[in-house]
């Protein structure tokens, strides 16, 4: 049987090396491509035959969540597994919404990663054991209180612009990165400020950190 072909994306080379060592110790798992950010991961997925994308949630230029959403459009047959340092409920729900099948903490990679990959390829969801109780309890509490689960406020493109703004890019630099006009960048920025009820770049940066688009 052909091994599962894996695309690995993390902005830290040491983390990628450690993950690769764990995966390639297994005969049914093979890392065929590596990326240092979400944008590169999507590009590699377009050009490489891969079965599974393992994406770090927090990456520069394009997060793992953004990349997962993009992959669900351009390579819907590719399964997605998310990696994170953070035990964060919002990340979990956003990961599911983005099309991910699993969510693994980096602190327990050596214990959970291989099984997470295999479960994902079987079409089964995977969530590290310690989070299940807390997430189910949180969900039930929200239902009892009549509180809706978090909804996506910004469009995918606005989120891309927000991340780049928060990383300190100018409108001209953002326009070049996303291949859009400066005027379009400014329109997205204005729309975001209005939707979120914010005032300026600093507020946008704080919001980006709060929703996990940028590491504090």
Automatic annotation (TrEMBL):
Pfam families membership: GerE, Response_reg
Domain Response regulatory: 5-121
Lineage top rank: taxon: Bacteria
Entries under Gene3D superfamilies matching the protein: 3.40.50.2300
Molecular-function GO terms, alphabetical: DNA binding
Entry-annotated residues carrying 4-aspartylphosphate: 56
Lipid biosynthesis as UniProt keyword: no
Keywords, comma-separated and alphabetical: DNA-binding, Phosphoprotein, Transcription, Transcription regulation
Annotated GO biological process: phosphorelay signal transduction system; regulation of DNA-templated transcription
SMART domains: HTH_LUXR (SM00421), REC (SM00448)
Domain (HTH luxR-type) ranges: 147-212
Official protein name in the record: Response regulator transcription factor
The organism of origin for this protein: Kribbella capetownensis
């Amino acid at each position: 049987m052909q091994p599962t072909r894996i695309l690995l994306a993390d902005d830290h080379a040491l983390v990628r090396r450690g993950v690769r060592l764990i995966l390639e110790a297994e005969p049914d798992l093979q890392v065929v491509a590596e990326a240092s950010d979400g944008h590169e991961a999507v590009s590699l997925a377009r050009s490489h035959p891969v079965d599974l994308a393992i994406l770090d949630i927090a990456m520069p230029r394009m997060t793992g969540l953004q990349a997962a959403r993009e992959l669900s459009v351009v390579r819907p047959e590719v399964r997605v597994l998310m990696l994170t340092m953070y035990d964060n409920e919002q990340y979990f729900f956003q990961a599911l919404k983005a099309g991910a099948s699993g969510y693994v903490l980096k602190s327990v990679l050596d214990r959970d990663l291989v099984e997470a990959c295999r479960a994902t390829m079987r079409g089964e969801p995977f969530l590290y054991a310690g989070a299940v109780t807390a997430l189910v309890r949180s969900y039930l509490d929200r239902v009892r209180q009549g509180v809706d689960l978090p909804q996506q406020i910004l469009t995918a493109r606005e989120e891309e612009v927000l991340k780049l703004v928060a990383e300190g890019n100018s409108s001209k630099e953002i326009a070049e990165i996303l291949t859009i006009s400066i005027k379009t960048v400014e329109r997205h920025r204005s729309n975001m400020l209005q939707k979120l009820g914010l005032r300026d770049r600093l507020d946008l940066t704080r919001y980006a950190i709060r929703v996990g688009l940028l590491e504090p």
